[in-house]
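pasting input
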Amino acid sequence: MLLSTKGDYGVRALIDLAKHAGEGPVQRADIARRRQLPESYLDHLLAQLRRDGFIRSTRGPGGGHELTRPPEQITLLAVLECLEGSLAPLGCVADANRGGESLCGQSWVWQELYDDMRRRLGRITIADLVAHEREHEQAAVANYTI
Amino acid sequence: MLLSTKGDYGVRALIDLAKHAGEGPVQRADIARRRQLPESYLDHLLAQLRRDGFIRSTRGPGGGHELTRPPEQITLLAVLECLEGSLAPLGCVADANRGGESLCGQSWVWQELYDDMRRRLGRITIADLVAHEREHEQAAVANYTI
DNA sequence: TACAATCTCGACCAGATTAGTCGTGAATCC
DNA sequence: GGATTCACGACTAATCTGGTCGAGATTGTA
């Protein structure tokens, strides 16, 4: 498994924030409820996202979390590397890409795959994910009214 | 990290067997020495490869391990799925691809990436890896003689 | 038949990671 | 002052990783 729930949950949380952008801070409890995430675990993920500058948080009544940038400027790649660390498929590929040295046997295979994956994830933004989610809602509504 | 050392070591072992195909059984100790793997750990990997029909093993003096098929017919995909289980990047993708049900939020992204990776790995065989290794040896020798 | 070489298989283990929970404290608003 | 909300670190249980070890089965050879 390339990703743990950290990446998954974290992206879901950012989608939620993006969807409520411009409405003031969004509370942790609301994110957790809407996205079905354990709130106290979400806390850790938000902390990481804050440290890396994806969100800003304010305390006290009416406080909560907000994106620091428009969702069009937040790539899936950046978010996942923030929450998961390197996405390299194999240790030796990660080493090599951090200026390390030896590539292991089949790493030419992995390097290609890795580069391609990063390229793709670098082109997808949180805004894309929100758009996709909205489409699905639309579809659900359409089904409903027929 | 998508892969653990299991996949890595297992592939290395199969490359070794492919390189010595037609010379009779290859001993675990020799594979371990040549490929720099812990022998008793390699034991487990060979057991798994045997259960899945990639290799055949014989005991007693002169015994060892051999490929059951020509290396051109063994894909990297098959080997890795044998040793690592599903290569799906995310749990929900694995579920969906085993006839499961719900795909999670961003899974359209992952499904595409996953399909592409499987296609690629399905086209690479152990024979390709051996060829690649031989080339590198050639290159090393060439450097030497200059 | 004895013995040595090999694989076979399961038990065991230490350390890391994952996926959390919980509690205390700090900031903020009323 | 009290309620609300985030901040942060300690703690935990379960699982995975990357092994080691030992007793036993099988086979070739002298």
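fyi Residues 25, 27-29, 43-44, 46-47, 50, 57-65 of chain B lie near DNA strand C (CB under 10 Å from a C1').
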